[in-house]
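Researcher: Sequence recovery benchmark, item below. Answer with residues only.
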């Protein structure tokens, strides 16, 4: 990708944001394992229960799944039907990627954002907490991830759309990101 091309600069910026978000949120997986270990030891060795710790594992798992979706898209980790895609050349793949982004990714992400908005807004309005006695009193924070996930997907989707347009115009290659991240 041309370093001075404004579209390429936007793609790099969005990619960097997705990369930072994904790598940051990935640390929750380690914390999730540690907290799960503590919950198990407390419950089965010390015979002590802690609802907040148990709920925190659910929160962390949700954050990893929802907030890591844009990072996963950046790294082409989402499910794809490769029967038609794999044998195509770079330009054919770019066309499929553009169509998929325009007619699937962006509309579905917008729909998820739209239908979640009132749900999350009401949760914030009521400062919704756990249904369990002694649970985490910040359910509204968890529900906010229902808005952040489609927003992150749309941002990375825009990066993918622009990258594929650059491929069609001969200004970039689909494998360039992989080459930069995994040099031989």
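Model:
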């Amino acid at each position: 990708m041309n370093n001075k091309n404004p579209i390429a600069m936007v793609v790099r910026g969005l990619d960097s944001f997705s990369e930072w978000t994904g790598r940051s949120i990935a640390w929750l997986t380690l914390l999730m394992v540690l907290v799960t270990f503590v919950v198990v030891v407390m419950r089965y060795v010390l015979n002590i229960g802690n609802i907040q710790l148990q709920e925190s594992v659910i929160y962390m798992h949700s954050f990893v799944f929802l907030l890591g979706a844009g990072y996963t898209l950046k790294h082409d980790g989402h499910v794809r039907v490769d029967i038609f895609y794999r044998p195509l050349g770079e330009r054919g793949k770019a066309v499929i990627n553009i169509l998929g982004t325009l007619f699937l990714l962006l509309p579905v992400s917008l729909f998820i954002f739209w239908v979640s908005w009132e749900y999350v807004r009401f949760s914030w309005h009521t400062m919704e907490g756990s249904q369990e006695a002694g649970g985490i009193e910040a359910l509204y924070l968890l529900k906010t991830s229902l808005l952040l996930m489609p927003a992150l997907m749309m941002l990375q989707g825009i990066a993918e759309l622009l990258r594929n347009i650059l491929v069609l115009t001969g200004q970039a290659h689909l494998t360039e990101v992989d080459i930069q991240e995994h040099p031989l």
